[in-house]
Amino acid sequence: MGADVLVVGAGPAGLTAAAELARYGVAVRIIEKNRQRGAHSRALFLWSRTLELLDRAGIGGQFVAAGHQVRAANIIAEQKLIGRIDFSNIASPHPYALMLPQAQTEALLEAHLNSFGVQVERGAKLDFFLDDGGTVKSVIVCAGGKRETLETRWMIGCDGARSTVRDELEFSDQTQTGSHDWVLADVALSGFDAPADELFSYWHEDGFLAIFPIAEGKYRIIADTGTSESANPAEPSLLAVQNLLDERGPARLVASEPIWLAGFRVRERNVGQYRRGGVFLAGDAAHLHNPAGAQGMNMGMHDAFDLAWKMALALTGACDGEALLESYDAERRPVADHVIGNVHRLTALSTMKNAAAQRARNLLGGFLLGLAPARRAAAAEASEIALAYRNSPMIGPDDGSFPIATPGERMPPVKGQVPVGAGERPRFALFAEANEATTRFLQDFAELLEPELRPAPAASCMWLVRPDGYVAAVGLTGDIRVFYRYFEKLGAKEEAALL
């Protein structure tokens, strides 16, 4: 069976990439070396921006129905609340964090992929590949041992932290391994007299402890356990988890019925490039984050959303596909650097051991989180609605005077409105008043644009929004030339040139 794209790895990033490509009509195959989907909960958080992107695919509601909504995060030090971040104020149709075990996320994504007639080829392993400059030739060892040679336009390596694709290409990276060991435990928890829709982090003198609700009566516990000489942290016992709760958490908590117990050491990575020729990296194959930061799975899915619409549009020939694909690295790698840096700094703050430094941290943290702008900024960063592509080559100029959303920022979705990027083709959307110039623009680039204008959120400006919901360019009302210049930069062909 032929394909335009081979996706290697069927975790959240790979499933998202394959489903988005299939939704846009791209012939795709997806292989996974493991014969069964992972059963453990693993990644737990789906943030607001991820849910907005899933809404584009028409499946956001399924995830919301399956998950548990969390409305706030609390930071406690010296038995006092020093900060509370309210997610309900996030400017999104999804003003919350959605708790949903990764196994369920993958099941929903795979069912969505199956709806396009694409199945995950489980037990199939990538043995070898060669990019000859025009196609990627791959040798796949199928579940029964049969070897198959496949030629595709592109390959996406979504095969995790131990990526075969990344290692084969010898991508450089900056891997940093932390000195602390960590414990993760999904358990039943009794005696926790706290709202079930809030997160709790404890900055204790002995170390960090977090309690995250998963479902009724079920919680995730994460704690650092200091340094050790072992090469790999051992799986903790339930007694060890109980001891950490007794030492650092509120009184009278009792953990029981362990669902998953794991020990880990933080590794942080961001490879030096996300693309070489026809081969791309996404998800953990490209970047690793501290799981305590709850960003890794979301970031991998965002990689897939970004790359899929660009591949789909490149195949149409309506614009310069090479420029589009080259922008993937320019957009996603700096975002990963930013997120990894934020999580690294937060981890360092929460795990510091010096008593004087802890007191200073608690005082400063209490002061900053007492300020409403700081709390709003923290919520926007955590929910990923603040992430932007301001320095992307696929973004128009910004003179700093535009309201609502500037080039590179996400265009705030309107609840109840069909999201930009929904449907069977990747199209840009024009938010503007109807007049002769905007009508002509829609006609000139009918292949690239939604056929109908969308209402402009401010009368003074017009917005051209990409298929992933990020602003491509902004112009003052009446200055349609800025959008013609943008499409010229994109190598877009006017409708007359395509006939």
What's the helix and strand layout?
Blueprint: E1 5-8, H1 12-23, E2 28-32, E3 45-46, H2 48-56, H3 60-66, E4 68-70, E5 72-77, E6 80-86, E7 97-99, H4 102-114, E8 120-122, E9 125-131, E10 136-141, E11 147-152, E12 154-157, H5 164-169, E13 176-190, E14 198-204, E15 207-215, E16 218-224, H6 238-248, E17 254-270, E18 275-276, E19 279-281, E20 287-288, H7 296-316, H8 321-351, H9 355-368, H10 372-383, E21 429-431, H11 436-444, E22 461-465, E23 471-476, H12 481-489, H13 495-498
Parallel strand pairs: 1-2, 1-12, 2-8, 5-14, 12-19
Antiparallel strand pairs: 3-7, 4-7, 5-6, 9-10, 10-11, 13-16, 13-17, 14-15, 15-16, 17-20, 18-19, 21-22, 22-23
Helix pairs in contact: 1-4, 1-7, 2-3, 7-8
Q: Can you tell me about this structure?
A:
With 499 residues, the chain is an alpha+beta fold. It folds into 3 domains: 5-44 and 101-173 and 271-353, FAD/NAD(P)-binding domain, CATH 3.50.50.60; 176-268, D-Amino Acid Oxidase, Chain A, domain 2 (2-Layer Sandwich), CATH 3.30.9; 388-499, 3-Layer(aba) Sandwich (Glutaredoxin). The protein is 32% helix and 26% strand. It has helices spanning 12-23, 48-56, 60-66, 102-114, 164-169, 238-248, 296-316, 321-351, 355-368, 372-383, 436-444, 481-489, 495-498; strands spanning 5-8, 28-32, 45-46, 68-70, 72-77, 80-86, 97-99, 120-122, 125-131, 136-141, 147-152, 154-157, 176-190, 198-204, 207-215, 218-224, 254-270, 275-276, 279-281, 287-288, 429-431, 461-465, 471-476. Strands 6-5-14-15-16-13-17-20 form an 8-stranded mixed β-sheet. Strand 18 (275-276) and strand 19 form a beta hairpin. Helix 7 (296-316) runs antiparallel to helix 8. The model has no long low-confidence stretch (mean pLDDT 91).
